[in-house]
Amino acid sequence: MRGQEGEFRELLGAAGLDGGVVEGLLIFLGLLGRWGRVCDLTASLPAHDLVRDHVLESLAGVPWVPAGVVVDVGSGAGFPAIPILLARRDVHGVLVEPRARRWAFLKEVVRELGLDAEVRRGRVEGLGLAGGGGAPGGGLGQGGVGGRRGRFGGGRREAALVGGAAGPGRPAGGLERCGNLPPA
């Protein structure tokens, strides 16, 4: 990863990202490289492809992320949530990941970067997220963005759901406004 750090720095800088965001992304990409060899987080990609296809694509929706909460269902290697949370420090993240190794990786990334986020191990069906749409009973569909509105617990706060796969009622690479979530 050390050899790639300079290349990552150049690519991220050329994208016009803020210096603080670049530094956070460099730490994230370093952790991704170290953990990825053990946990099979992403395919082995050249630095240019990793930055273009994962980091910058994750950041493309940042202007449309409302203040409040971002829920990333099936967080895996942390895309798109980690780049979004680095760019938007006014957003609280809820990263949902059922696989133990990936959950542990995400916990370490959140800790190392000091992100305002919680990492939950489990499936979205078990988190009490209710609302309109994707799955029978009006909750979120498995592995992606389901309904347009949702509630997480009893309190209220605006949220956006990101991540997951495209499917019926779910946009590809989805960023979708969702209901109200409780205060963090």
Describe the structure.
- About 35% of the residues lie in helices and about 20% in strands.
- α2 packs antiparallel against α4 (about 80-85).
- It is an alpha/beta fold.
- The chain has helices spanning about 1-15, 20-40, 45-60, 80-85, 100-115; strands at about 70-75, 90-95, 115-120, 130, 150, 160, 175-180.
- Residues about 130-160 and about 165-184 have low confidence and may be disordered.
- β2 (about 90-95), α5 and β3 (about 115-120) form a beta-alpha-beta unit.
- Strands 3-2-1-6-7 form a five-stranded mixed β-sheet, with helices on one face.
- The longest helix is centred in the N-terminal third of the chain and has 21 residues, at about 20-40.
- It starts with a helix and ends with a strand.
Strand content bin: 15-25%
Q: How much helix, percentage-wise, in residues?
A: 25-40%
- What string gives the helices and strands in order? HHHEHEHEEEEE
Give the CA-based shape: globular
Q: What is the strand arrangement across the widest sheet? A: 3-2-1-6-7
Secondary structure class reads alpha/beta
pLDDT below 50 for ≥5 consecutive residues: which ranges?
130-158, 164-184
Number of strands: 7
For the residues shown, what is the average pLDDT? Answer: 75
User: How does the major sheet shape up?
Assistant: 5 strands, mixed
Q: What value does the Rg take, in angstroms? A: 16 Å
Termini gap:
35 Å
How many helices does DSSP assign? Answer: 5
